[in-house]
Amino acid sequence: MTVQAGTAGAGLPLRLHHNAYVTADMEATRRFYEELVGMPLVATYCETDHLFGADRVYCHCFFALSDGGALAFFQFASPEDQALFGPAMPPSPFHHIALKVDAATQAAVHGRFRAAGVPEPSDDCYFLDHGYCQSLYVRDPNGLIVELTVDAPGIEDTDEERKRNAHADLARWLGGDHRSNNLYRPQ
To answer: Which residues form the VOC domain (predicted)?
Structure first.
């Protein structure tokens, strides 16, 4: 899905700078994102900050996206801080981060998961055809689901239609009419 500027005018955010999560095992996280997904580690900050009434010692790593954005992860030196700031991810496919990729990148990532012995379909690796995109879902060492999505050919026309009808579709659904408007998903 291609997201375009709304009607709000100037001041729209330029891009995602980073999404941040907490990990209990930075090396396992690094291997997953750098070696399996293919996102290079581009920055590691080793820091101490006085936050929320105490000194917090942590490592903060950034894994690059091609547009300059990143996924970032924190690991705390103190087990108490780790427990306070790093609760477990909920086991839900509806809590995930989706990254747009091309078909060759998706196939390469899928190949690396297969070579690593990740079974599929499983909770850790599966495909889903949304109609408007094809998605590979993988679970990282922290329980976070990462969706690697390839837009369907001609998605620009679909995006324009969805944009034109976005408010009306939302009002219809909130009003109790829950019929699907995804005419692109295979039956």
So the answer is: 15-151
